[in-house]
Amino acid sequence: MTATLTLPTPSKSYVLADSVTMLRRSIRRIIRYPSMTLLLVGMPVVFLLLFVYVFGGTLGAGIGGASGGRAEYVNYVAPGIILMTVASSAQGTAISVAMDMTAGIIARFRTMAIARSAVLTGHVIGSLLQTMFSIVLVIGVAVAVGFRPNAGPLEWLAAFGILAFITLALTWLSVAMGLVSKSVETASNTPMILMLLPFVGSAFVPTDSLPTALRWFAEYQPFTPVTETLRGLLLGGPIGNNAVIAVAWCVALTLVGYFWAMSLFNRRASH
Amino acid sequence: MTRRSLKHTLRSPDTMVMTIALPIMILLMFVYIFGGAFDVGGEYIDYVVPGIILLCAGFGAGTAAVSVSTDMTNGIIDRFRTMAISRSSVLTGHVVESVVRNLLTTSIVIVVAVALGFRPTADPLKWLAALAVIAVFVLALSWISVALGLLARNPEAAQGFTFFLMFIPYVSSAFVPTDTMPTWLRSFAEHQPVTPVIETLRGLLMGTEIGNSAMLAVIWCDAIGLAGYLSASLIFKRKTAH
Description:
The complex is a heterodimer of chains A (271) and B (242).
Chain A: H1 12-32, H2 34-54, H3 56-64, H4 70-103, H5 105-110, H6 116-144, H7 153-180, H8 184-189, H9 192-196, H10 212-220, H11 223-235, H12 242-270
Helix pairs in contact in A: 1-6, 2-3, 2-4, 2-6, 3-4, 4-6, 4-7, 4-11, 6-7, 7-11, 7-12, 11-12
Chain B: H1 2-11, H2 13-34, H3 44-73, H4 76-81, H5 87-116, H6 124-151, H7 155-161, H8 163-167, H9 183-190, H10 194-206, H11 213-239
Subcellular location (chain B): Cell membrane; Membrane
Main location (chain B): membrane
Transmembrane segments (chain B): 16-35, 47-69, 90-115, 127-151, 158-176, 214-236
């Protein structure tokens, strides 16, 4: 005869408390393994230095004509690099989730009176905080190499708002990618697509310098409106309808990521 | 030993696929995404392909380090020591296999480049010279990779050690002319080993000015190859002595 354990359905206050506990766990892990944060910051910084110092002179001239140069290109590329930091952090989230799923800790949590959603929420909020910290570091490096934003406090607030939103969207997507992966190695490779998308957008070069087929894709993919909104906010350029499209993409990606992650987690945690 | 190494490669096609796929992806990215914005005074694909060829060689040679490290950690060397096998042949096998594999992958990358619009102006003699330059460069890098593979504690560390082989071509004339770089970076880019090899390759395939690049390329390749060979032999002797 087998005994079945029936846990009470947690109330909303319990869900919140459990999420805070799981967030604390995620933050502890981040502090204990600073190498992961350094790695997440390291890749965008390497790309920033590469594109500014190695390719910047040529790309600056190609983008800005005779007036264009390395100084202009730093300002052009920095928002794209900031977004790359978000995509890079998503990879870290997928790895953390896959580690939890394969290490057996979830089985332990199932024996406790913990709100199921709290486990994933902890990962997401922890990753959000880690990414925002990484973004600040990357902006610091960008300023050191010549990035000169002319945004006021309100624009900076809006820029961080849009960055937090896209981080939330990509984090939920990467949580789902981490859950769908059979191993940690697979989880580290799956979000690579998110790392590649900024390249096929307006992050490094204007979309009108791309071949027609590629330009069409670049103009309608999620990273381009976010990059253009960020560029407009930080450098005072025209934003147009990019902000609305960026927010719409963020909402759509968050919902897709959230529901996909939840259904995968419920399926995997139930057996 | 070369046959053994080649069998290993054929049995793990994923390594071969990655060795080919990564340079092709980088080629596609630089030609289609950045190519329109780069101003190099001509067709960008013709400018970038020699650099991609060397990037491919660097990436391919780097896998030799992982193979050697795997051999050193899984105990096969101890087995070989009980047999009447020349000690040096173990390493030589890895190096020869690396050269053969890299020439094959480089050929595939060149075919893809031609399909994308690369139009070399070289005659058969210049093609032969270009292949010789690639082979000598791969040989030099393979010996350095083998030495790094012997130094590494495990295959993962060996992969990390060879990362710079992948990175050095970026800080050269592979993707952009060195005169577009800041002064401090330009002096490094102009005096590092990859630049003269690329300029020689570009000159042979596209008919651009070679100058003293060919001589510098040969000197660099010989120096790197010799340093790699001597250090690899020394480390291998020390590691298998007890």
